[in-house]
Amino acid sequence: VQCARWPLKLGLDCTCKTEALAGVAWLGVKEVAENERWISFRSPTGLIYSCRKEDSSEYPDLSPIFDVAGVRVVLPKGLVDSAKLGEVFSKRDDTHNDLLFSFSEGTLTVCGFGPQGEYTKQVEVEYTGPDTEFYMNAGRFCELADRHSECVLSPDKMKVQTPDYMWVSVLVPKEEGRG
User: Fold this and answer.
1) What sign has the CA pseudo-torsion 144, 148, 150, 151?
2) Which 3 state secondary structure label does DSSP give 131?
3) Taking the model in full, what pTM does it have?
4) Of all residues in the chain, what percent are helix, strand and coil, respectively (each to 5)?
5) How many angstroms separate the CA atoms of 144 and 99, rounded?
6) Smallest Cα–Cα separation from 112: which of 103, 104, 100?
7) How far is it, in rounded angstroms, from Cα 120 to Cα 115?
8) Of 74, 88, 72, 76, nearest in space to 123 by CA
9) Residues in a beta bridge with 132
10) pLDDT digits (tens, 9 = 90+) for 128-145
């Protein structure tokens, strides 16, 4: 399960589906307008992109999900390459592509298992928390590690926070995993 929150500096408070807002970030929005059912964005070229507003009372308060008390992890360069090699063995199809990540003090082990074989790589990492093992989608992890050099890891969640957004993934513990 993943969740993301992007606070927009527009002075508006509304809820829209992620898929609807996905195209807005690349427009370089200069103006915004809203009415009861729609929020519209205008690009510098005059393109207007509109998203239907959702009734936020239908959605639960997700604030507790974004509250992650854990240990800061500095992700080393080259980690994406290790995850991509593990993905060669873990990828069964687009929805079954999970790697096993095992954190212990100073070490991260990335494992990919599949019918063709397995891949295991140990890398040094700045981590001082308890031993933690979980499964995560290889593509999502590569995207995270490619864009960010650090995260917060708890026994059940991984969180990235930037000035622009927060991203949290609920982790699948090894004992409940797919390996």
Assistant:
1) negative
2) coil
3) 0.68
4) 20, 40, 40
5) 14
6) 100
7) 15
8) 76
9) 103
10) 999 999 988 888 888 888
pLDDT higher than threshold 90 for residue 77: no
Six-digit token pair at 112? 């990919």
pLDDT at 76: 85
In the structure, what pLDDT confidence band is assigned to residue 32 with cuts at 50, 70 and 90? confident
Residue of 157, 150, 175 whose CA lies nearest to 100: 175
Residue type present at position 161: Q
Q: How many CA atoms lie within 13 A of 113 on its CB side?
A: 9
Looking at residue 1, its pLDDT comes to 46
Which residue in the block uniquely carries the two structure tokens 């790697």? Answer: 99
pLDDT tens digits for range 100-110: 999 999 999 99
C-alpha–C-alpha distance, residues 42 and 39, integer Å: 10
Neighbours of 175 (CB within 10 A): 7
Contacts of 51 (CB under 8 A, 6+ apart): 16, 17, 20, 21, 24, 38, 39, 40, 41
Helices (H), 67-168: 79-90, 138-147
